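Budget justification aside, the reviewers requested a transparent look at the raw inputs and outputs of the sequence design task funded under Objective 1. We therefore reproduce one unedited record. The lines immediately below are the structure tokens for a 225-residue chain.
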């Protein structure tokens, strides 16, 4: 079986579990909505200010919701002692990483579609004069976040890891995704003086880097569990 087929099999397994249990999206969607409401209330009722801050609020909600989704995704396997099965399974461990990244990316895209609707309703976030730029920013940002979460999520389930390990690992590393995603979204919304091309390029470079790193080191991280 090729690497691609192994990765698709792992991704299909994770998505099947999520569809049946709704553990990741069921927790991440309310949390992301709460983040949006909290930041919106903190900024106050000024419509112009909320519209200006909408791209940043969107990506903050996605980022915080994704951390919760990463943790929930690995916790299911830890509860059932299935992590050991991944270690001894006769498949390429890079395929496990890529499959989990694919599954998480699909879950995050579902989360982002809901967050987009909420952001549009609450803050007047424009879907943009360049909607394809917005879609590209979300897809590229999702791939980067999924790579980070799939790589370090396995560490969070180690018996030696504390509850706060995953956010401490993910949030600093996700800063380039947050920054580039916000600027590209602002460009898509028509903010003057902001050009999306370089920010989309940064997101693409980030994705390639972390996907490459993950395929190389994931086996070692998994064997440490």
């Amino acid at each position: 079986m090729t690497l691609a087929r192994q990765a698709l099999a792992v991704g299909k397994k994770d998505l099947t579990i999520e569809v049946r249990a709704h553990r990741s999206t069921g927790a991440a969607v309310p949390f992301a909505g709460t983040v949006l409401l909290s930041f919106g209330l903190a900024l106050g009722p000024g419509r112009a200010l909320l519209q200006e801050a909408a791209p940043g609020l969107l990506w903050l909600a996605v980022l915080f919701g994704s951390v919760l989704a990463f943790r929930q995704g690995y916790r299911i396997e830890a509860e059932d002692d299935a992590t050991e099965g991944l270690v001894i399974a006769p498949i390429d461990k890079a395929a496990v990483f890529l499959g989990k990244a694919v599954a998480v990316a699909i879950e995050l895209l579902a989360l982002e579609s809901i967050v987009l609707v909420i952001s549009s309703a609450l803050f007047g976030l424009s879907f943009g004069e360049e909607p394809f730029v917005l879609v590209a920013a979300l897809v590229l940002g999702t791939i980067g976040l999924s790579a980070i979460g799939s790589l370090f999520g396995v560490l969070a389930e180690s018996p030696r890891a504390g509850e706060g390990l995953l956010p401490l690992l993910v949030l600093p590393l996700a800063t380039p995704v947050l920054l580039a995603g916000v600027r590209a979204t602002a460009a898509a919304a028509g903010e003057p003086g902001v050009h999306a091309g370089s920010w989309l390029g940064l997101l693409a470079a980030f994705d390639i880097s972390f996907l490459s790193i993950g395929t190389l080191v994931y086996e070692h991280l998994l064997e440490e569990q």
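Residues 47-79 form the longest helix (33 residues). The chain has a mean pLDDT of 80. Computational costs for records of this kind are itemized in the attached budget.
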